Amino acid sequence: MTISALLVANRGEIAVRIIRAAKALGIRTVQVHSAADRDMLAVKMADAAIEIGPPSAAKSYLNIEAVLKAALESGVDAVHPGYGFLSENAAFAKAVTDAGLIFIGPSHEAISLLGDKVEARKVAMQAGVPTVPGSNGRVDDLDAGRAVVEEIGFPVMIKAAAGGGGRGIRIAETLADFERHFPQASAEALAAFGDGGLYIEKVITRARHVEVQILGDGVDAIHCFERECSLQRRRQKVWEEGPSVSLPADVRRALCDSAVALARSVGYRGAGTVEYLYDEQSGEFYFIEVNTRIQVEHPVTEMITGIDLVQEMIRIAGGARLSLRQEDVRLNGHAIECRINAEDPAKGFLPGPGTISTLNIPEGEGIRFDTMLYEGYQVPPFYDSLLGKLIVWGENRDACLARLAGALEHFEIGGLATTVPLHRKLAADASVKRADFHTRFLEPWLETAFPAASPVASVAPVLAKEKH
Ligand code: ADP
Ligand code: ADP
Ligand code: MG
């Protein structure tokens, strides 16, 4: 193991998660933080902490120079980027490596290649992985776009090559829609991601979002089975589970093998996720993108395979080979993760910060709560609204759901509105109990479940999520 100290270049629950993994491996931790995060749990847990800038993420967690300076000054030999922020920024990964430090993730070349969603589609096709019918490469102008949509048919999605976090996607039902959206999408993508490049995909209706967890050491790659994340709001995941109950055994095998083929084709190193849409009617699955980092919902996989993915990615970055062979990875039971956000489902998911007055966390066998919270903690208004993740395991899906319902019943976070009430309703819903859902299930469901909700026209500036 060549890593003896690492810098945590993130905040919130994932910073806490990384510190726990590092401690288990005997690695010293240095936590960076903004001026608004002096009291965060990860700062208290780390061996040392360094303030790197003002509350604005652009000037702190996204400031490559400031993060790198902290890494060099603190004498760590590696940097863990977590998710969001700089985790998929190839320039950051390169800067870390150029400075003689270890970036805990794939090579910067792999990040650039797979982080460009158009290039990633090409990689998938070359590896023999089915992709969603759509454009061949980027679509540079409206005329080229018209030719594509006439061939594949409506509805279509106009997607930003550099998009992420559910942003940079528009649906066009008709040619008129398409002609209106296309120029706007390009301008928006340029403003949001610094890259106006667009591509087109056919809309797969009533699809399930199924994704495969992969691990690679640059020589070999394996999968750790799949997670299903079909319950989404604004294309952001709300509830994730594994394994997906919708997959017949042969489809599961083909899906997981295709993710490994893709990972092997690029000599992938580290933890990653290959995302797909699965059409239950036809039994077909289609690649959509690769996330070259640890994902929010990684604990689902940890609960059903017993693998510590964060420890494994740190070990690999330190030069170790994979500690598991494919045949060592076994599925055991079922796990569900509920994202607990500082958002009020009864008020159109209005985000709101606050001080944690009481905290009653459910405990017991098969129950895990990954969080940044403690009593008295003041949730700052500047960042993503994720407060924590409740992950529950059961020996099968029904047992898992029953345990989840019990855990949610006794779960109390006082001082601010959270999405706990939403998860209570989901866990009790008949369709959810049957796993009878798809990616467009949740939004109309919410209109019935929370009828008084006044829709928030746009994300309130206070909790606007910053990325990249
Ligand atoms: P992001 O990079 O923002 O995560 P993705 O390409 O992974 O974007 O898509 C996010 C979500 O948008 C998917 O989980 C799915 O719900 C929806 N989506 C994306 N592409 C399609 C498609 N071609 N057809 C239907 N839904 C799609
Ligand atoms: P994951 O499956 O890990 O959630 P996403 O691509 O959906 O993958 O999001 C990754 C991370 O990006 C999130 O956990 C969060 O830190 C950040 N993020 C999510 N949604 C947004 C958003 N709307 N705007 C900016 N960043 C976001
Ligand atoms: Mg995605």
Automatic annotation (TrEMBL):
All copies of domain Biotin carboxylation, residue ranges: 2-447
Enzyme Commission code(s) on record: 6.3.4.14
Gene Ontology molecular function terms on file: ATP binding; biotin carboxylase activity; metal ion binding
Domain annotation ATP-grasp: ranges: 121-318
SUPFAM superfamilies for this protein: Glutathione synthetase ATP-binding domain-like (SSF56059), PreATP-grasp domain (SSF52440), Rudiment single hybrid motif (SSF51246)
Catalytic reaction list: N(6)-biotinyl-L-lysyl-[protein] + hydrogencarbonate + ATP = N(6)-carboxybiotinyl-L-lysyl-[protein] + ADP + phosphate + H(+)
UniProtKB keywords: ATP-binding, Biotin, Ligase, Nucleotide-binding
Keyword Nucleotide-binding in record: yes
Matches recorded under Pfam families: Biotin_carb_C (PF02785), Biotin_carb_N (PF00289), CPSase_L_D2 (PF02786)
InterPro entries named among the record's database cross-references: ACC_Biotin_Carboxylase (IPR051602), ATP-grasp (IPR011761), BC-like_N (IPR005481), Biotin_carboxylation_dom (IPR011764), Biotin_COase_C (IPR005482), CPAse_ATP-bd (IPR005479), PreATP-grasp_dom_sf (IPR016185), Rudment_hybrid_motif (IPR011054)
Enzyme class: ligase
Record's function text: This protein is a component of the acetyl coenzyme A carboxylase complex; first, biotin carboxylase catalyzes the carboxylation of the carrier protein and then the transcarboxylase transfers the carboxyl group to form malonyl-CoA.
Protein name as catalogued: biotin carboxylase
Provenance organism: Allorhizobium taibaishanense
